[in-house]
Amino acid sequence: PTIYEDRELLIVDKPAGLAVHSGTGISAGLIEILRSVRKELTYLELIHRLDRGTSGVLLLAKNRKSLISLHEQFRGREIRKIYTLLVHGSWIKKIQSVSLKLQTSYRMNGERHVIVSDSGTETQTELRLTKRYENYSLIEAVPDTGKTHQIRVHVAHLGFPIVGDDRYGRDIQDKQKKENPPKRMFLHAKKLSFLHPISRQNLTIEANVPKDFQLFIEQMHEGGSN
Questions:
Q1: How many CB atoms are closer than 10 A to CB 154?
Q2: Is 92 helix (H, G, I), strand (E, B) or coil?
Q3: Is the pTM of this model over 0.85?
Q4: Is 26 strand, coil or helix?
Q5: Under a CB-based contact definition with an 8 Å cutoff, are residues 55 and 80 in contact?
Q6: Is 51 annotated as catalytic?
Q7: Is the pLDDT of residue 180 over 70?
Q8: Radius of gyration (C-alpha) of the chain in whole angstroms
Q9: Cβ(164)–Cβ(185) under 8 Å?
Q10: Are 100 and 154 in contact (CB under 8 A)?
């Protein structure tokens, strides 16, 4: 679904399970699909990326000038990002800031895997409790940096992995859940705030939590209030 569009930008609500571009074992991703559907667009490029299992706000540029402008904002940490995620465990602190050095490694199959390492890049995320449930917590993440898999690794390192995360989470526990088992990773890019590349006006783009995410939450028994 298209959330916003003008002469400079195309902003979509990426579904979970769809890769943003083609790659190993993936013949076509979101960008290839959009280029084939929107053939009238002579230029269309991803401004940033989301993991295949992550849903939510994704920015694309319709020209090189807008692409460069938004890339500069990302590098300058001028873009504010807010994610919604469901994690295993009972989150304790209302607000918690996490700073960890992360390093990317590659497995035998070429799959990226990020670890906490003293030789890695410094990363920061602010985590805010939204609501506690029995054995689960709904939180918001505001990353200050943009390392690959940053949020996933940060919460897993703290002992609260994202529900449905088959790389850093509790995959066996997720699969053993008999009632309403997770069919996706519950990480959603909820909101992005940035300056429009041409008008320089502040834009805030938001994508509602998908129905499958919301349904999973509604079927859980509440274990406490925020």
A1: 25
A2: coil
A3: yes
A4: strand
A5: no
A6: yes
A7: no
A8: 18
A9: yes
A10: yes
